[in-house]
Structure to design on (489 residues):
């Protein structure tokens, strides 16, 4: 094959490939938009917004009424001790309870490590 | 006695090492240094570089038919490992940002332009179409996809393509930012995007099924990759097979990564790797990556204009896959311009779209040049 033929063939493949991938993903984006209309009706959106506002208000109230300073201080101190690092190098963004999914042997090993540290 | 010692010595690697093998061992050690000290994609570069070391031990012939690595390599040759890796990737990926902003799929598509630029360049540099397709796919910034395609079209280039793909993925934070800054204005980089809508569980469950049907019907050769990616994601989202989801995103992907990395590295024997072609592959791979980044950003600029300034063009560069590194780079560059600007979740949309896009391109190239 001559260089021009190689160039032409490569160009054809490139154009076809780009059209194919753009076309496929565009169709997929239209399907997703359709899914949004089906599963996210406007009433739901409004409900969600209201629920979100209520949740935010609740959170704000919780923060206002409960003083977690001591709890945060204790957790920070424990982490600093565990990591063997000064407290000044730690920055606590948020502390939240997570749903426990660790298997029992994972928890056991975690407790073992903590016990060894303290 | 002396004769026996000499005979034994003549059979050792020390007596039989060639200059090429010594160079390959040094390259393997350098890659291990990058992986361990510099932390460049260590999960893959450690097994790849060690596989490279093993393949170049004189007289060991671990990749020869019947030997240890030969059998493990059959999983690469028969295209078993890359789809299994994709299953793990699917189980670890949250497609929520993509479903919330479907237009980001187009950014993932635009960033695939790099693949075709390198395909064209490789053709002009004298590689045949099968080799050119394997080199071009480096621009997809997706290791398993690159290995999937190369093992089918040009197995002799597998070592070089894999090393290039994973090295450039690790170098995303160095390669992308200058291109992103050069192609965007300060005003564009400072755009704060609207918060994404919450995505329902039903949408997340339906998404993998729709993508599998749509993409696999169109490009059947991509079914193994797209299908496994989406199966893994369905495990994650359906909520009734937590054990399978956990296994896929932990034990399965880890075991397959060891097999895949070691054997792909072992294909980089001195006679395959130490050629001028390898340097060309590395350069073309870099070009593919850079053009992919540029085309993603330029498409992002187009969306910025069409949306009336609501889209930050920096999220376009994340369309080259390299999940989640490319999305993080978008976030870092955006925050440099405007601290407090969070576009990470918006960048995750094109980022995961890039994975789907590069799998479709791989399937297309396989159907055109495979067999």
């Amino acid at each position: 094959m001559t260089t021009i033929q190689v160039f032409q063939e490569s160009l054809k493949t490139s154009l076809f490939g780009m059209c194919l991938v753009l076309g496929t993903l565009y169709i997929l984006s239209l399907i997703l938009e359709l899914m949004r209309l089906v599963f996210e009706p406007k009433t739901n959106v409004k409900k969600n917004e209201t629920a979100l506002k209520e949740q935010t208000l609740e959170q704000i109230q919780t923060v206002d009424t409960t003083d977690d300073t001591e709890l945060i201080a204790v957790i920070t101190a424990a982490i600093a001790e565990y990591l063997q690092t000064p407290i000044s190098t730690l920055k606590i963004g948020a502390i939240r309870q997570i749903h426990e999914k660790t298997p029992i042997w994972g928890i056991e090993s975690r407790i073992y490590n903590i016990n060894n540290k303290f | 006695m002396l004769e026996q010692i000499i005979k034994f010595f003549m059979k050792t690697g020390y007596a039989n090492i060639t200059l090429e093998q010594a160079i390959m061992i040094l390259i393997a050690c350098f890659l291990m240094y990058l992986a361990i000290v510099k932390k460049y994609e260590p999960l893959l570069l450690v097994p790849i570089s060690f596989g490279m070391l093993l393949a170049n031990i004189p007289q060991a012939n671990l990749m020869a038919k019947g030997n240890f690595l030969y059998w493990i390599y059959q999983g690469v040759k028969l295209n078993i490992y890359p789809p299994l890796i994709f299953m793990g990737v699917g189980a670890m990926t949250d497609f929520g940002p993509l479903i919330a902003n479907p237009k980001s799929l187009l950014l993932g598509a635009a960033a695939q332009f790099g693949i075709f630029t390198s395909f064209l360049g490789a053709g002009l540099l004298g590689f045949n179409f099968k080799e050119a397709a394997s080199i071009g796919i480096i621009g997809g910034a997706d290791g398993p996809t690159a290995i999937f395609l190369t093992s089918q079209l040009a197995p002799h280039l597998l070592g070089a393509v894999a090393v290039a793909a994973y090295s450039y993925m690790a170098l995303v934070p160095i390669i992308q930012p200058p291109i992103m800054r050069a192609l965007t204005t300060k005003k564009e980089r400072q755009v704060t995007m609207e918060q994404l809508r919450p995505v329902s569980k039903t949408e997340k469950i339906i998404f993998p099924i729709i993508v599998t049907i749509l993409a696999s019907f169109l490009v059947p050769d991509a079914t193994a990759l797209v299908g496994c990616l989406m199966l893994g994601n369905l495990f994650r989202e359906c909520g009734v097979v937590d054990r399978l989801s956990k296994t896929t995103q932990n034990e399965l992907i880890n075991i397959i990564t060891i097999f895949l990395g070691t054997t792909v590295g072992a294909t980089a024997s001195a006679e395959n790797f130490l050629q001028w072609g390898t340097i060309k592959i590395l350069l073309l791979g870099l070009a593919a990556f850079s053009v992919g980044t540029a085309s993603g950003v330029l498409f992002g600029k187009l969306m910025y204009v069409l949306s009336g300034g609501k889209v930050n063009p920096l999220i376009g560069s994340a369309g080259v896959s390299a999940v989640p590194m490319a999305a993080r780079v978008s976030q870092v560059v955006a925050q440099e311009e405007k601290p407090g600007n969070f576009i990470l979740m918006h960048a995750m949309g094109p980022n995961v779209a890039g994975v789907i896009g590069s799998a479709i391109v791989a399937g297309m190239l396989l159907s055109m040049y495979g067999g």
In short: Chain B has a mean pLDDT of 92. Chain B is about 75% helix and 0% strand. Chain B touches chain A at residues 98-99, 102-103, 105-106, 108-110, 112-113, 115-117, 119-120, 123-124, 129, 132, 197-198, 200, 202-203, 206-207, 210-211, 214-215, 218-219, 242, 353, 356-357, 360-361, 364-365, 368 (CB under 8 Å). The two ends of chain B are 56 Å apart (CA to CA).
